[in-house]
Request: fold
Amino acid sequence: MIKNCLIPNKRNKFKPYLLRKIAILCYSLVLVFVNSFGGFLGIDQAKASSISSANIIALTNQERSSQGLNTLNNNSQLAAAALAKANDMFEKQYWDHFGPNGETPWQFIRAAGYNYVYAGENLAKGFQTAEGVHEAWMASPTHKANLLSPNYKDIGVAVVEGVLLGKQTILVVQMFGNLTNDVYKATAPVKEEESVKQSTTESSSGKVVVNKEQGEIKSIRITSPKKDSVVSDPSSVVKGEVKNVEGEYSVNIIEGENVVGSTTSNGDTWEMKKESDWSEGKHKIQASIKGTSVISDKVSFTVDSKAPTATKESIQVAKGDSGYTVSFTVDGDWEKMSVIAGSEIIDVEYELNEETKVITVNLSDEQVKGAVSLVLADSYGNTSQLDISEYFAEKDDTKQNTSIFPILSLNLCDKISIGIVSFVFILLCIEIFVYWRKGKLKDAIGDLFTIGLWWFVLTIAIFNGFNGSIT
Reply:
């Protein structure tokens, strides 16, 4: 029976049961049903994803750096504002920069304590990867203008999963800001005069003496990262400049006795991106012009990209007369803390008790029914967000992980869709091989073409469905 379902043979008249018209119809109905009505059955439309705040910020800064712009600092207040905005959209079920009751992005930014001079916001939903989000924003003139605006110095990103307008989705909120009127201005290198004037001095006898000796010295220096700076982006590029070097040249970046990266340039400036990220901790590097003895001064910098995180197993919540008391331990040093209840940014009081951080949060029973998140940040802007909603209410045992393929970072609907088209593809390959071996490939070419075309169109439709939307 299995052979008749899968492999062409005399008993099934060289037409496997699982590739007949009725089977193709069933596949189509299952795909339409799962992708259109899966949400009503509790099948998640978005589960694990490679989208994260860190990925979005890294892609943004890489783009800005490639355009000669300043990179943005991860700001905990903007991160809190972005999270509050995302929760507000889920609570009030809208998909826009402005809410149904006149909510604006700026009110969330101000509520987080960020008194901006310049501010902006990008939104995205329904994407599977951070790269997909970034590419969509870059393809939109208005979103691209935000990403590449010289007015901004800070950034905050929230990535939240929930049901929006009847569909389970992943929502990305990206907020930009600047607390000052200062904006980034590209500085053009100073142009040297084409003819160098001879320097002159006056002798004791009053005669003018021409200094005929003129010289040039090749030099190289590192301009970024700055000496003794702290870098929160481990993928940061090394930038520098040279003087009196003509034509194309190569630059080696040296750490200790090892060359950790190379680049080429034919101008006064150069930049190098390592093949792998910088490791956490201190680094001391030099730049040298390959094939020469020209080398720069050493530049020391520290990479600190790890955000302080609350240890989930250590969180304890107790309800008192004045509100909820939350205690937890933190991995890493932290400087700022916020609690986001739904769309509200809650002021908290906290005290340090050795390794345990004890905070008192004044939350009503109504507030804790929604999403409650703890946001921690260190002095370098590294920010972590932890959903602690489950500690304020009884766990809902009806919610279970419906993922049947945990290895794949896709939602269940996408897994079902990919599973079906992959299964049909395997059946097609088997049938083509058998027909070829039997010498009957020409007789079946019409049916194979029809099924193959159906499979191709379906596959394109499924992968096109992975795209999200931006606003």
The mean pLDDT is 79. Residues 39 and 166 are 7 Å apart (CA to CA). Residues 412-438 form the longest helix (27 residues).
